[in-house]
Specification:
mainly alpha; 2 domains; 74% helix; disordered C terminus; cell inner membrane; Inner membrane-spanning protein YciB; YciB; transmembrane helix; cell membrane
Length: 203
């Protein structure tokens, strides 16, 4: 079910604002340590603790304004709460760093399960935005599935082998740029399998 339309700039702020706030907060607090209730927390954990309610709030506002959230948005905020909460509770940044891996494995697994059944679950999410023929959806879904699994592997490699600052930069800008570039490269699929909207009869 399609939601109500809202200002695209406001929508972008609600979707990407928390991510940018996390990045800025990390830059401000990186390398610092804070003693809270007898426990030492570094800046990353405190920024994560602030990111969780901010993400929940922005998602709730988006739902309030549009009357709709995609399954992807719901899954993302749930995993943010779970893995972010574990990082804060256990004072261990590894859980939050694993979160993108879990998100992309989940999405890739769901799309892959649909492909095994001969269906494109991606079509359910994107059909109103990008109308395609059935074969186009199957091609795009196979590519998106592989892409998600690739992002999951890439996230694991980066957070396990590089610094926290490198991972935060990758999460904030690298993932967004990779997704944008991926869909830009699917232009031929959109062109070859796109369905033009039928204009109403003037008669």
């Amino acid at each position: 079910m399609a939601g109500r339309k809202i200002n695209p700039i406001l929508k972008m702020v609600l979707e990407f604002g928390p991510i940018l706030a996390f990045f800025v907060g990390y830059l401000k607090l990186k390398g610092q340590h804070f003693l809270i209730a007898g426990t030492d927390y570094d800046g990353f954990i405190l920024v994560t603790a602030g990111f969780i309610p901010l993400m929940v709030l922005s998602t709730a506002i988006l739902w309030r304004l549009t009357g709709h959230l995609s399954k992807m948005q719901i899954a993302t905020v749930v995993l943010v709460v779970i893995f972010g909460g574990l990082s804060v509770w256990l004072n261990d940044d590894r859980f939050f760093k694993m979160k993108p891996t879990m998100i992309y494995l989940l999405f890739g697994g769901i799309l892959g399960a649909g492909l095994l059944r001969g269906k494109s679950y991606l079509r359910v999410v994107m059909e109103e935005v990008v109308p395609l023929e059935h074969e186009g959806w199957m091609i795009l879904t196979r590519r998106v599935t592989a892409f998600f699994f690739g992002l999951a592997v890439l996230n694991e490699v980066i957070w396990r082998t590089m610094s926290t600052e490198a991972w935060v930069t990758f999460k904030t800008f690298g993932l967004t740029a990779a997704i944008f570039a991926f869909f830009m490269l699917q232009g031929r699929v959109f062109r070859d399998y796109g369905i033009e909207e039928q204009e109403g009869d003037d008669a």
